[in-house]
Design a protein that fits this description.
By secondary structure, this protein is mainly alpha-helical. The protein has a domain at 1-43. The protein has helices at residues 7-27, 45-67, 71-79. Helix 1 packs antiparallel against helix 2 (45-67).
Amino acid sequence: MTATFTKKNYMILITGVILIGLGYFLMMGGGSDDPNVFNPAIFDSQRITVAPIVCLLGFAAVLISIMWKDKSAVTKETKK
């Protein structure tokens, strides 16, 4: 019986989770201490474009880690 997740799956999964966390960290900030004062930093390109792309890459990595199957494991199963 083979393991469902290999070491490579876990490494890709951890990378994806780190990317998601980094993306959410990049979205932080840009607020104002005074609610009557508008801070245009909330619409910075880091928060509008970079952070969502990093989050999407993280979610894609998590999906890939779940779907990844080593070719060596596939050939071992077919030989049985």
